[in-house]
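INFO  loader      accepted 1 record
INFO  loader      residues=536
INFO  predictor   begin
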Amino acid sequence: MKKFMASALALTMLAGCSSSTSGTASTGAATTGGSGKNSVTIATDTDILSMNSSTSTDGTSFIALTMCQSGLTQLDDKNVPVADLAESWDVSDDGLEYTFHIRKDAKWSDGTALTANDFVYAWDRLIDPNTASDYAFLMDKNAESNTTNVKDWEAVDDTTLKVTLSKPCDFFLSLCAFPSLFPLNEKYVEEQGDQYALSSDNMIYSGPYKMTEWTPSTSWKFEKNDQYWDADEYKDNVDTANWRLVQGQSAILDYQAGNIDYVKLTSEVIDDYAGKDDVVTSLTGYSWYLSLNFHNKYLANENIRKAIAYGIDTDKMCTDVLKDGSAPLDGIVTKSTTANADGEDFRDISGKVVLGYDLDKAKEAYTEGCKELGVDSVDLEFLYEDADVSKNVAAYVMDALEKVGFSMTAKCEPKKSRLQDMQNDNYTVALHRWGPDYADPQTYMDLFVTGASNNYGHYESKDYDALISKALNDDAADATARWEDFAEAEKILVNTDIAIVPLYQSGNTALQNTKLTGIQYHGAGVDSYRHMKLSA
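INFO  predictor   done
INFO  writer      dumping tokens
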């Protein structure tokens, strides 16, 4: 058995984080963030959709969950899994058995002991068909195959969790830091019933903070959890962290007035803040792409899909529209998100698989598609959400496709409604994003398997499915062959079948109080705000 102790892992952690800045801000919030002593306020342009870790699916909810809940592991500032609720773990030589040792001092915020059974209950609940979780595929031991190859899990005793895999899974420890795998207190959740996690009063917490206020569509607040096993380590962290749903110029004015400590900048104003000490930038792992509904008669036509793919200049979109550090996507898998044992990036191995911008080819494909369909023109409804960045991208895409010949109709909705329409097959073309849940190409490739819960466009390909199955089964223990399978599948998805149209890997440019440090951006996984500090 290979022993991995928390103390040894801690030696690998490096100080600092990618979002830290230095110097004195020329603009920015005061140390109080307008919210009281040692308090920060973060501006957000998207709302929490669910605080139920069994059913949450969106990035904003995941960020909130990682503030107040914990997993067996957590990701450090280099995206490396390190100990959290598990103080150590053993891994068998064949990589098929993980034995996690839960901390004896791990507690819920109500003072009750946190045990191995809390993970068993949470994972059983995740894969229960009655839960209808979109993330059941991560751990569904009842399926022919699942993302992690997990075959079974059991609580050997209160502090020992044993997990058995059918095949090795290189990213399993990273996934243990993902909210869907967080523990749940069975007694508490069952007592709450269908009210569980609907408000801050219907939850107990396992993380360094507690959610103490939550007003949907407005704001939410976290305060320190003195029952957290590592509470002493957080004594210098902010006492209170607030999120406010505010965007655009209103958010910037609040920042300048000292009421907000962190706000993302939109493309319209980024140039105004160039060179300022309080501007921070990062490249995220989010893939933004056009989801094409194959149930639509127009989009079922290959030439029509080809016309869309050729008709959008993603380089110009990033430089002239987004202007926030976003980069054109060369496939569905983002760059600097997944690397093999030799440090090679999957994006470099797979290469550029998108068709690329060519207006002449776009018009030619459009004409041929119309001829095949027996129509003079094609009308497309374009679905996108009401955040500023989505509106800007949508305007650019619709204008570009109208130049190809398409007739475009806009459908702008709040994020929750947009996702619901996609799930209900009530859309034609949608601006959609996916953030990686763990550092492996599989987190993107799983989405488009026939019948997958997130395969909103109803794409079906026997060749694609066969390659994904080969990667997950036959080549599971061969890292090189597995990545080759994914690379070939990606080319089929993006280049051959044009099942989706990759647009950009989102960047992030923000104004951040120069006294605020500790925000960690994870290219794979969930960005972490649990380590925030304010200097004097």
